[in-house]
Specification:
heterodimer; A: alpha/beta; eleven-stranded mixed beta sheet; 11 strands; globular; B: mainly alpha; two-stranded antiparallel ribbon; 4% strand
């Protein structure tokens, strides 16, 4: 920022763009109407101090699952449709402290449960690359807003792929950091042992910038690792060659995936090889148990986390006159959407007397096997990173899977095992299908090795510039 | 296959009132999903320890220092029903 143009004018441009384009896409649940005004407090000193205020004047969209002080936060649910939080999530507070301007709250599957953004109480989001198709989910609003240039940066959350799958569907960059890297304080809880907050951007450098701002220890989250903010910007700038790096490819997992995705992924592998990396076939024998284990663990944790919505302290309450127990039941029956109720039921069943060992405990044992598969690749086979598609298909059509919950669940086959193991992974674009639909692939590294992910992503981006910084034409 | 009674029992445990239509669709869908997740029995995980957390960290302790974060009004303003400075709920004892 050289001071020639005040961010206020830039922000007016973004606000106008949101007002013009968003009615078509439905990315925003709440626009922070006065966001350009907020930039007026940024003086010359702040604007020129890039070190302390790296986001000065930059609009950031926040997935509506992170609470924002005095700005409505719904988690995409009717049960929170009027909720005005009294505090900021730590990730949001850090963005504000870095000079960032909160443009608004982005649409999502209700309580982050879904892979298409069709489970929102505020209507589906459309994919800016083809408005008949879904943007992915659950961070569908974040992905579509970034891909259509409504905001340059957004936050998402990822419990089973909710950052990476929509990033892939919308042709952008999305990082799920290591569990514990980013504070979950103020993140409305879905499955607490899996949830993680992360950046969604159009290029790797922006991703590194937002990641640096939000990462680091927070005393308000007891699962947060005691590391300082992770600064990988220099790593991104200097990365060119991948010589000496060993990439693990679980080729067996590619069986049965969409042909266009397979072709683009294999082309990406070729590029990575040309950059000097060595490709090594690895096997992840328990990978395929990721989805069934996840659909026991995540709903179980959700059924407990969502017990707090009782119509007493905040949120929706039934209007029907009833005694206390009936009030709880009606409030929750009316306030939650179909998929959320389904998962609460599933989790309640799995945790109920007589079923705990057969479902929840066994799923957590399977999780151990999945984790060991990854450990064996990273430690025994000395793999630096694992490469795998982000989704087995390109973005599908609205309505195509929403009536069949199980087929929707299966679309997260490549992302879920990463959450179960707590690993970091990034989805980056690797081109377009013949129908001009974006496709992405994941770079997965060992715990707290985001540095390797950024190194690979950045070298790849420099070689394949045309896949990055794409703003969907609408 | 789950029975209607099982669905109603779980719904009551979960404090969810379901419509007639929902009871039937839950019964069918949950049965299908539960059948599917049984695949974990093929993983051969019985002899392994469960993973509840992906990286081990001792529970952090801190000094117990009182801190004032919110005004009561900031909390109460989100209550669906209140009376003065209290949350209001339906009568519990007749």
């Amino acid at each position: 920022m050289k001071g020639e143009i005040h961010p206020y004018e830039v922000l007016i441009f973004f606000l106008e763009r949101i007002e013009k384009i968003d009615p078509l896409l439905n990315c925003f649940i709440t626009v922070n109407e006065n966001f350009p005004e907020e930039a007026k407090t940024l003086n010359r000193e702040i604007l020129q101090n890039i070190r302390d205020f790296p986001l000065a004047g930059i609009p950031v969209g926040i997935k509506d699952v992170l609470v924002t002080k005095n700005l409505r936060t719904t988690a995409g649910s009717k049960i929170l449709k009027n909720f005005i939080p009294p505090y900021d999530a730590t990730a949001v507070r850090k963005i504000k402290e870095a000079g960032g301007i909160i443009a608004g709250k982005l649409n999502m599957d209700e309580f982050a449960m879904g892979s298409s953004n069709e489970n929102s109480a505020f209507g589906p989001v459309r994919n800016p690359h083809d408005i008949e198709r879904v943007p992915g989910g659950s961070s569908g609003g974040s992905a579509a807003a970034v891909a259509s240039g409504l905001v340059p940066l957004a936050l998402g959350s990822d419990t089973g792929g909710s950052i990476r799958q929509p990033a892939s569907f919308c042709g952008i960059v999305g990082l799920k950091p290591t569990y514990g890297r980013v504070s979950r304080f103020g993140l409305i809880a879905f499955a607490s042992s899996l949830d993680q907050v992360g950046p969604m951007t159009r290029n790797i450098k922006d991703c590194a910038l937002l990641y640096k701002v939000i990462s680091g220890f927070d005393p308000h989250d007891s699962t947060c690792a005691e590391f300082p903010p992770d600064d990988l910007i220099e790593e991104v700038e200097k990365s060119e060659s991948l010589k000496g790096l060993r990439m693990g490819i679980p080729f067996k997992q590619l069986e049965g995936i969409d042909k266009a995705v397979e072709d683009l992924f294999k082309e990406a592998l070729k590029t990575v090889e040309e950059l000097g990396a060595e490709l090594i076939e690895i096997s992840l024998p328990s990978f395929r148990f990721g989805i069934p284990a996840y659909y026991i663990i995540a709903p179980s944790e959700a059924s407990s986390n969502l017990a707090r919505y009782d119509g007493v302290k905040y949120g929706y309450r039934t209007e029907e006159k009833s005694a206390l127990l009936e009030m709880y039941m009606k409030t929750r029956g009316e306030g939650f959407g179909k998929e959320v109720k389904r998962r609460i039921m599933l989790g309640t069943y799995a945790l109920s007397a007589g079923y705990y060992d057969a479902y929840y405990l066994k799923a957590q044992k399977v999780r151990t096997l999945i984790k060991r598969d990854f450990e064996s690749a990273f430690k025994d086979k000395k793999i630096d990173a694992i490469l795998i598609p982000a989704s087995p298909t390109p973005p599908f059509r609205l309505g195509e899977k929403v009536k069949d919950p199980l087929s929707m669940y299966l679309s997260d086959v490549f992302t879920i095992p990463v959450n179960l193991a707590g690993l970091p992974a990034m989805s980056i674009p690797c081109g377009f299908t013949r129908d001009r639909l974006p496709v992405g692939f994941q770079i997965i590294s060992d715990l707290f090795q985001e540095k390797i992910i950024f190194k690979i992503a950045s070298a790849y981006e420099k070689k394949k510039k045309e896949y990055f910084d794409v703003v969907a034409s609408l | 296959m789950l029975t209607r009674e099982e669905v109603l029992r779980i719904a009551r445990l979960a404090r969810l009132e379901l419509t007639e239509e929902e009871i039937e669709s839950m019964r069918v869908e949950l049965s299908r999903i539960l059948e599917y997740v049984k695949e974990i029995n093929l993983a051969g995980a019985d002899d392994f320890d469960p993973t509840f957390q992906t990286f081990e960290k001792p529970t952090p302790l801190r000094e117990d220092v009182p801190e004032k974060r919110f005004e009561a009004e900031e909390i109460l303003r989100n209550a669906p029903l209140r009376k003065d400075k209290f949350f209001s709920v339906p009568k519990i004892i007749e």
